[in-house]
Amino acid sequence: MEELKCIGCGATIQTENPKEIGYTPASSISKMENEIIYCQRCFKLKHYNEVQDVALTSDDFLKILQRVGETDALVINIVDIFDFSGSMVAGLSRHINGNDILLVGNKVDLLPKSVNKTKLNHWMRRSLKEYGLKPLDVALVSAGKGFGIDELMEMIEKYRKGRDVYIVGCTNVGKSTLVNRIIKRFTEEREDIITTSHFPGTTLDIIEIPLDDCSAIVDTPGIINEHQLAHYVTPKVLKEITPKKEIKAGVYQLNAEQTLFVGGLARMDFVKGERTSFVTHFANQLHIHRTKLEKADHLWATQAGAVLKPVAMDNDQLMEMEKHTFHIGHEKTDLVISGLGWFTLSGTGQDINIYAPKGVGVMIRPSLI
Ligand code: GDP
After folding, report:
1. Could you tell me which of 66, 73, 21 has the C-alpha nearest to residue 42?
2. Domain named CP-type G: which ranges (predicted)?
3. For labelling, which of 43, 60, 117, 138 has a CA lying 20 to 30 Å from the CA of 125?
4. Which one, of 168, 319, 144, lies nearest residue 230 by Cα?
5. pLDDT at position 201
C-alpha cells in the first residue's frame, strides 16, 4: 500500500495499533475521498474537540521534553497517586531544565475518606524530591469525577505568569481525561477556541489549547512507563484490579509467620514481630487470601492462576516475583505496591517481605491515614 499521511498531524497512517500514532480503522480508509485522510486522533480532535492519548517511543518523547527545556514555561506533571512510581517520567528533572513545575495527583476519588490529604501532599513532594523535582505546588484532582478541577485551573493561572503550560505524564495516569476536562472548561467560556494538533511531517505529537493571544496549554504525548503493573496484565485483568470507586479497607490481625496473598499479584509475609493489625487497601473486588508462611511457597507453586488469581503475565509467562524486605521502624506505616494498593500496619519492629511482579515499585511511607 502507498504510504498515506494524516493531513492533521502528518503521521504515517497505520491500521494495526490503536494506541500508536497514525492509527485509523481500516474501514475508514476504504471510505476515504480524494485521498484526504485524518488519523483517528485528529478526526476526534477536529470533530469533537476530544483528545485521545497515543504512545510514543522514548526518543520521540525526549525531543518533546527538550523543546520544553528550551522554553520558559510552566510544566504540569500529572501522576496517578495510586501508581506513583509507575507515573514517573524518567529524567524529567534534567530535561525540563529548571522550569517551574506543578504536580497534579490524579484519581483521588479512589482513596478512602480516612486518607489525610496533607500527609498525602507531603508524601508526594518527598517522593518527587527523590527524582530531583521540587514542585511549586501540588494539586489533588479526580479527572474522572471532575473533583479539584477549579482549584487546578486557579493554580495554573497563578503560576503560569503569562507563559505556556506543558502537560506531561505517563500513559494510564489519566492525562487525556484531565486534558479533555481542561478543554471543556475553556470551550465553555470561549466559543471560538480551536484546539490543534500540529507538528507536520514528524511523529512529534503535540496538542495546543490556546489560553490567550500569545500562550497555550500544550499537551504532550503519554510516555510508556514499563514499571506499571498495567503493562503485565490483560485488559480484562486490569479491569479486575483497578479500583473503580473509593477503596474499602480490610482488617487482618496477624501473628508472625502468616502470609497474605493479594490475588495472584502480590504476597506479604509477616516474618517476625508482635501480633499486628494489617489494614489492606486494594480494589474491592480483589481477593485477599490468608495462609501460614510455611505453606505460602507451596500454595504459590500449585495455585498461582487458580486459587491465587489474577496473575501478571509477560509474553504468556507467569511473571517472576521480586522480593522486597522491610524492617518497620515507625509507628503506623504503609507498604505500597505501586498500581495495586497498600497495607497499613501499626506497631514497630516487624520484619516483612513483600513479593510483587519484577519491576513494579514497592515502597514504604509513613501512613497516610
Ligand atoms: P492516559 O493514558 O494518561 O491518557 O489516561 P486515560 O485518560 O486514558 O485514563 C486511563 C485510565 O484511568 C482510564 O481507565 C480512566 O477511566 C482512568 N481514570 C482517569 N482519570 C481517573 C480518575 O480521576 N479516577 C479514576 N478512578 N480513574 C480515572
Report:
1. 21
2. 62-226
3. 60
4. 319
5. 35
Q: Whose CA is nearest to atom 19 of ligand 1?
A: 174
User: Among 177, 178, 281, 285, which is best to mutate for testing ligand 1, by the most ligand atoms less than 8 A from CB?
Assistant: 177
Single-letter amino acid, residue 237:
V
Q: Is 231 in the pocket of ligand 1 (CB under 6 A)?
A: no
Q: What contacts 201, CB < 8 A, 6 or more positions away?
A: 5, 10
Q: Which of 173, 155, 37 is nearest to 105 (CA)?
A: 173
The answer to whether the CB of 89 is under 6 A from ligand 1 is: no
What is the average pLDDT value for the chain, to the nearest integer? 86
Grid cell locating 359: 519491576
CA 91 to ligand 1 center in whole angstroms: 23
Ligand 1: centre distance to CA 230 (Å): 12
- For residue 204, pLDDT over 70 is answered with no
The answer for 347, left when phi > 0, alpha when psi is -120 to 50, beta otherwise, is left
110 lines ligand 1 (CB under 6 A): yes
Task: Give dist(CA 230, CA 216) in Å, integer.
Answer: 32
The three grid cell numbers given for residue 111, joined into one nine-digit string? 482513596
219 lines ligand 1 (CB under 6 A): no
Task: Report cis status (omega within 30 of 0) of the bond before 25.
Answer: no
* Complex confidence, ipTM: 0.99
Closest CA to 219 of 185, 282, 273, 175: 175
- How far apart CA 237 and CA 124 sit, in angstroms, is 28
- Confidence label for 292 from pLDDT (cuts 50, 70 and 90): very high
Answer whether 220 contacts ligand 1 (Cβ < 6 A). Answer: no
Q: How far apart are CA 219 and CA 167, in angstroms?
A: 5
